[in-house]
Amino acid sequence: MPRAYSRDLRERVVGAVEAGQTRHAAARTFGVSVSSVVKWVQQFRESGRVAAKPMGGRRPYALAGHRVFVLGRLAEKTDLTISVLEAELAERGVKVSRYAVWHFLKHEGLSFKKSLHASEQDRPDVQRRRSRWKRHLGKLAPDRLVFIDETWAKTNMTRTHGRCPKDKRLVAKVPCGRWRTLTGLAALGSIRLIVCD
Q1: What is the pLDDT averaged over residues 26-35?
Q2: What range does the domain containing 15 cover?
């Protein structure tokens, strides 16, 4: 980044213009651009200062002035997406990009994650049964436990379109020849895995 011109040079240029020299002549005399002379003289006449303004630093985030609103909305509804926040801000007259919203959230240390728990866990009867289960958990014999799991595969997850040369037919294959959901059950014990068809 280029350095600002010295205060001494700025004062001499402004002094020359104030003494009656034209801006073009002052620019030639001191070896600076005409636009710099115009800005320095304008700054001196408006504020009485010729010192350079601070250079560099960080630009404030586009949503810095709307921090309270954005954080308040996320406190109310934690699963708001960036697109929804962008739309809500637009309704309030704040035009920002998705990147600006993402950048603000990143700066605030907020990432998009969620751990879902069954809402039934809050019911008193379920809480009683869960605490009873935890008390008896230590009495179970691990070698007698069997874990049952279910999994599935859907053939309609196969892509239905592809690319091939013009005037050629594209033929692809799918499992089972039609759209289906295939389900599999398995029981895992301490000794072996039992697969149920």
Answers
A1: 90
A2: 7-47
